[in-house]
Amino acid sequence: MKKHDFDKHIDRRGSGALKWDGLEERYGSPDLSAMWVADMDFEVCPAIIDALRRRLDHPVLGYALTPDSYWQSIIEWLDRRHGFKVSREELTFTPGVVKGLALAVNFFSREGDKIVIQQPVYHPFRMVIEGNNRVAVNNPLIDRGDHYEMDIAGLREIVDREKPRMMVLCNPHNPIGIQWDRETLAEVGRIARENGMVVVSDEIHGDLMLNGRRHLPMAAVNDDTAAVTVTLGAPSKTFNIPGMVSSWIVVKNPKLREPFFHWLECNEFNEAPMPATLAAEAAYRNGEEWLGQLLEYIEGNVDAIDSFCRERIPKLKVYRPQASFLVWLDCRALGMSHERLIDLFVREARLALNDGAMFGDEGAGFMRLNIASPRAEVIKAMERIEKAINNHGL
Ligand SMILES: Cc1ncc(COP(=O)(O)O)c(C=O)c1O
C-alpha cells in the first residue's frame, strides 16, 4: 500500500490558488498563513493526476463523449460508501455545487418565494437566495455549548408561518462539521412533504466523515426524504479537486426530476466538460486508499488542535467536526468585539481564517479554521494565535 505524505509542504503561491494568491485582495496582505478557502494544501491523489496527464498525451482536445463508465463510477461510489442506491436516470452533472443550488433555486422557486436556511451556515446559500430575489428565512441552529442541534420546533413554526417553497440543508453542516442524525433528517423530510417544500441537500462534505462515521444522505433516509430531496454532491472537497469543477445532482422523485432535468438538459447546464469527468472517474475508481489515509490525517489534526487549545489556549473552544476539515473555534471567552477578534487573527497572528460572522450573525465571536494543511503548519498557526493572545495578557 502506498503511503501518501500529507506532511509534505507544498508551496501553492504563484499557482493561481485563490486561498494563497487571493490573500492580498481579501485580507490586504499576501504575507499571511492561509487557513480560509475550503480546499486542502495536500497533493491530489496520483491516480487523478495520471488520468489527466494521460489524456493530455493526445494532441486534440475536441468535444467529448461522457462515457457511461463515468456515471457508473458515481453510482458505485454512492452505493459502496453511503449505501445510497441511485439509478442512472436519477443522476446528472452540474458545473459546481453552488451552481447546482442556484439552478435548483431558479427552477423550483419564483422571485419573492421564501427559502429556509439554518445559520450559521455556508454563506453562498443566502447569497444565491437573495441574489435571485428570493427571501432567505433563517431557522438558526441551537448552540448547546459543545455541539449544535437543529431547531425542529422552530422549523415547524417557520414553515407554518412563512410557507417557504424550499429549504437548503447542509448535510453534513459547514461551518460546524455536524452530521445530522437519522431522526433529524426524517423530521425535516416529514415537514417538507407535509408542506410541499423542496429540500436541496448540499452533501459536498459527505465523503469526509471522521472517526468511522458513515454519511447519511438525506434522500436515503425514508420515502419522505426521497420524495422531497434534490441532492448535490461532488468529488471536489473529497479529493481536493474543486478547480476541476465536477459535481452532480441526484433527484429520486420523478415529479421533481423529470421537468428539472429536462430544463437542465435543454439549456445544456448539465453538459459535463471532459476534464471534469476524467478527474471524477479517476477519483471515484482509484482514490479510496488515498481518502482513507487523508481522513486519518485530518483526524490527527483535529486531535492536535483540540489538545493544543485545551492545554495552551483554554479560552478557545474547539467544536470537534464530525465531518470535513473545517474547525469551528469559539473565541467568545476572549471577550473581544468581533472586529477586534478579526484584527487579532489577521494583523497580530498573521493568519487568514474565515470570520464566523460570514456564516450569519450567529457566528460572531467564532472563527472557522481550515486544518487541511501539514500538521507542523497547523501547529505553527496555533502557536501564533497563542502568542497573540498572550500579548494581550488574556
Ligand atoms: C457546503 C458547501 N457547498 C458548496 C461548496 C462549494 O462547492 P462548489 O465549489 O462545487 O460550488 C462548499 C465549499 O466550501 C461548501 O462548503
Coarse structural class: alpha/beta
Classify the beta-strand content into a percent band. Answer: 5-15%
**Number of contiguous helices:** 15
> Helix content range of the residues, please?
40-55%
CATH superfamily of the largest domain: Type I PLP-dependent aspartate aminotransferase-like (Major domain)
Biggest sheet, strands in spatial order?
2-10-9-8-7-3-4
**Shape, per Cα inertia axes:** globular
**What is the total tally of β strands?**
15
**CATH architecture assignment name of the largest domain:** 3-Layer(aba) Sandwich
Calculate Rg over CA atoms. Answer: 21 Å
The ordered H/E elements are HHEHHEHEHEEEHEHEHEHEHHHEEHEEEH
Q: How many discrete domains?
A: 2
What is the third-level CATH name, the topology of the largest domain?
Answer: Aspartate Aminotransferase, domain 2
Q: Quickly name the level 1 CATH class of the largest domain.
A: Alpha Beta
Instruction: Summarize model confidence as the mean pLDDT.
Output: 97
Summarize the structure.
The chain is of the alpha/beta class and 394 residues long.
Describe this protein's structure:
The protein is an alpha/beta fold and 394 residues long. The chain folds into two domains: 18-45 and 288-391, Aspartate Aminotransferase, domain 1; 62-286, 3-Layer(aba) Sandwich (Aspartate Aminotransferase, domain 2). It has 15 helices and 15 strands. The strands form four sheets. It has a seven-stranded mixed beta sheet with strand order 2-10-9-8-7-3-4, with helices on both faces. Helix 3 (46-56) packs antiparallel against helix 12, helix 5 (97-108) packs parallel to helix 6 and helix 7 (152-162) runs parallel beside helix 8. The longest helix has 25 residues, at 288-312. The structure holds pyridoxal-5'-phosphate.
